[in-house]
Design brief:
heterodimer, A: alpha+beta, Butyryl-CoA Dehydrogenase, subunit A, domain 2, Butyryl-CoA Dehydrogenase, subunit A, domain 3, 2 domains, four-stranded mixed sheet, four-stranded antiparallel sheet, 10 strands, globular, B: Butyryl-Coa Dehydrogenase, subunit A, domain 1, 13% strand
């Protein structure tokens, strides 16, 4: 039993459409392309199935777009004044997890795409310990393209910005938005991981050494099997996360655990993926490196797995119940 | 409880959960089984069997088993709820339930007469079974087993040996995979048969783990006469029965273990609360909790699939790998958080963690080793080129 109601034939059809879409559009063009596909109706019909499918394919294609903004805005828009054109979301700087900058100082964070066609930036801030939202004018936002590990992300770094605006209290919408974002990111990481594992399986099945494909050597086979286990783990965690998505806090705890597991999974899949490709795995001649860097970037967004492990452990030590997360 | 009420709990899982939870948390009737330390495997399993008797008397562990076998109806999900609620209420999952989950469904499916005769007494804790699969020469490579059963009229005569039998020293019956075909017939010439531990010619030698607890046993069969109606499935069908059985061994055991692991994780947090902890403890605790939750998330899918009558194929190896990961992670965490106390401490809590730590090392071995699980995934799920045969 999963939260999705989508049948296999529909899922296959939509998968095909999404693959075509990501082959043809990127950046802020993805939103209008999805709208043209009637994606909003697909989401309305089956939020779990549609979101998981969209972001898995986004990951598999190594697409670069602000599709995630729509997931967060679906929660944040509820408390904001009616939108005036296109909105973008400023994500907390990864070291801050889901905790944005304080309202009384300069803010820092990430944008998933350039602001050229953006009318308003939704900026989460902490005011008196609770999260509030500013709706800021993009003009004057000091956004610099990220030139880090993942050269293809298309993300921009914002720092030292002092956006004007009246903070709108949004503690619970923010918690729900983060939970929704983490579910989408876990699906995206699963897509990147599956593409990387497919690459590794294809390479090791074709590459012959000592007179046989290297995927017939136990050491290689077991690494690939572990990669498969890690990816399956994300899928079942997503089931669990979606099962609680309807609760008041948006299923925050299960979503955080799902993002944690996805982050760990990508570390494992990429470690094995790079190893079994031999020297090819660390060159720019194989596509593997693009998966490694994208998965690393997605892990960092809204809290990486190490940060989430530590905050979860601290919460448990401080007396938070060890929630079973899943019931039969 | 009236039969109408029983019937409604068998069809309404939510009502079963709610009623069971209320029962387990009502008063002190079950305190005898809470927070107990046992000096030996034999004491522990006897106490656990008494808990089964108590649960049986009030009906709670009969859900999930068919009426013909002494149950109240319902499916695997009821059993899953039972293990979860016992754990949430700070109670042990009775040890004999482990082999009941492994052997029970196959006996119900392939030998309904035996299930009708013997399962009720199992459910009420009067006796329990051991699984006779492994042998000295047949561990992971089960198809090489040699324990023989030859047909003589209305009987089989068993000779040979089984090894690593869980609960072997106290079990009153063994469900054994034996060779009825030629020695070369590999998996084709196997049959499954139920043997009484008290039958003449059966001898049992307990095997102590490094903790001193006699969790396993070696069982010898010296011309043991077994009625032919003790076959589970047809003669020669043993491999198919064993493969059927493995679905529960991998899936239900995983769910049981996840339920118990979450209880032990909570107990560990209680035991280390307020004590100085090593660097990185919070991160380790968060990771371990994640391992347990991930196992639950995976396992619940499989439990639901079994309940829906689906066949769980090689992908059950994913459950088994996650199970071993969680078990190893929890017990290594306990060892590291308890620190010197784990090595030198004399307390009963610490003693239990030491014994459990040794037992947790079996998670990557029993029911198909970690290596076998990965090979199954490589062969049958990823479809990788096969390893050359030696």
């Amino acid at each position: 039993m999963t939260s999705t109601t989508m049948d296999t034939a529909t899922a296959e059809l939509l998968t095909g459409s999404l693959r075509e879409l990501f082959a043809g559009s990127a950046g802020r063009a993805v939103g209008p392309a999805l709208a043209a596909l009637g994606w909003a109706e697909v989401v309305a019909e089956d939020p779990a199935g549609a979101t998981t499918l969209l972001f898995t394919e986004h990951g598999r294609a190594l697409a670069s777009s602000p599709a995630l903004d729509a997931v967060l805005l679906a929660e944040l828009d509820r408390v904001l004044p009616a939108g005036n054109g296109t909105r973008a979301v400023l994500y907390p700087y990864p070291d801050d997890g889901d905790q944005p900058s304080t309202v009384d100082g300069p803010v820092r964070g990430l944008l998933l795409a350039g602001l050229e066609s953006v009318d308003e930036v939704v900026v989460p801030v902490r005011a008196n310990g609770a999260v509030a939202l500013l709706v800021a004018d993009p003009a004057g936002c000091p956004a610099e393209p990220v030139a880090g590990f993942d050269a293809g992300s298309g993300w921009l770094m914002v720092s030292g910005w002092q956006p004007a605006g009246e903070p709108v209290p949004a503690a619970q919408p923010w918690e729900r938005a983060v939970a929704a974002g983490r579910r989408a990111l876990a699906a995206e990481i699963a897509g990147v991981c599956q593409a990387a594992l497919d690459l590794a399986v294809a390479h090791t099945s074709a590459r012959v050494q000592y007179g046989r494909p290297i995927a017939s050597f136990q050491a290689v086979r077991h690494r690939l099997a572990e990669g498969h286990v890690a990816i399956s783990d994300i899928a079942s965690m997503l089931d669990a996360a979606w099962a609680t998505a309807g609760s008041a806090n948006g299923g925050a705890w299960a979503a955080a655990m799902t993002k944690l597991r996805a982050g760990r999974a990508q570390a494992e899949v990429m470690r094995h993926g790079v190893q079994v490709l031999g020297a090819m795995g660390l060159t720019s001649e194989s596509e593997m490196h693009r998966h490694v860097t994208r998965a690393g970037a997605l892990d960092a967004l809204l809290g990486g797995h190490r940060l989430l492990s530590e905050t979860t452990g601290r919460a448990l030590l401080a007396g938070a119940p060890a929630d079973p997360v899943v019931e039969v | 409880m009236t039969s109408t009420a029983t019937a409604s709990l068998a069809t309404d899982l939510g009502a079963y959960r709610t009623s069971l939870r209320a029962y387990l948390n009502n008063g002190d009737a079950l305190d005898r089984w809470r927070g107990k330390h046992h000096g030996s495997t034999e004491d522990r399993i006897a106490e656990h069997a008494a808990l089964m008797a108590h649960l049986y008397q009030d009906g709670w562990n009969r859900y999930g088993w068919p009426a013909e076998a002494g149950g109240h109806g319902g499916d695997e999900r009821h059993r899953g709820v039972l293990y979860d609620e016992l754990s949430a209420a700070g109670l042990p999952v009775p040890d004999p339930q482990l082999m009941l989950e492994t052997l029970g469904p196959a006996v119900v499916r392939f030998a309904p007469d035996l299930a009708a005769r013997y399962l009720p007494e199992y459910l009420r804790g009067a006796n329990w079974w051991g699984q006779g699969f492994s042998e000295p020469e047949a561990g992971s490579d089960l198809a090489g087993l040699r324990c023989r059963a030859r047909r003589e009229g209305e009987h089989y005569v068993l000779s040979g040996q089984k090894l690593w039998t869980s609960h072997g020293a106290t079990a009153s019956r063994f469900v054994c995979l034996v060779r009825t075909g030629t020695p070369e017939s590999r998996h084709r010439g196997l049959s499954m048969i139920m043997v009484d531990a008290a039958a003449p010619g059966v001898s049992v030698r307990p095997i102590a783990l490094a903790s001193g607890y006699r969790e396993l046993a070696e069982v010898f069969f010296d011309d043991v006469v077994v009625p032919a109606d003790r076959l589970v499935g047809e003669e020669g069908q043993g491999w198919a029965v064993a493969m059927y059985l493995l679905q529960w061994e991998r899936a239900m055991y995983a769910w049981q273990s996840a339920a118990v692991a979450l209880r032990r994780f909570r107990e560990l947090l209680g035991q280390v609360a307020g004590k100085p902890l090593p660097d990185g403890a919070a991160t380790r605790i968060g990771e371990c909790y994640g391992d347990i939750v991930a196992l639950r998330a995976r396992s619940v899918r499989t439990v639901r699939r079994l309940a829906a009558g689906e066949t769980v194929g090689p992908e059950a190896s994913v459950d088994k790998v996650l199970l071993a990961t969680a078990e190893t992670s929890l017990h290594d965490l306990a060892r590291d958080l308890l620190g010197t106390d784990f090595v030198l401490g004399a307390g009963a809590d610490t003693g239990d963690w030491r014994a459990d730590w040794w037992f947790s090392r079996s998670a990557t071995i029993l029911g198909g080793s970690a290596e076998v699980q990965r090979t199954i995934l490589a062969d049958h799920v990823l479809g990788l080129p096969k390893e050359p045969r030696a």
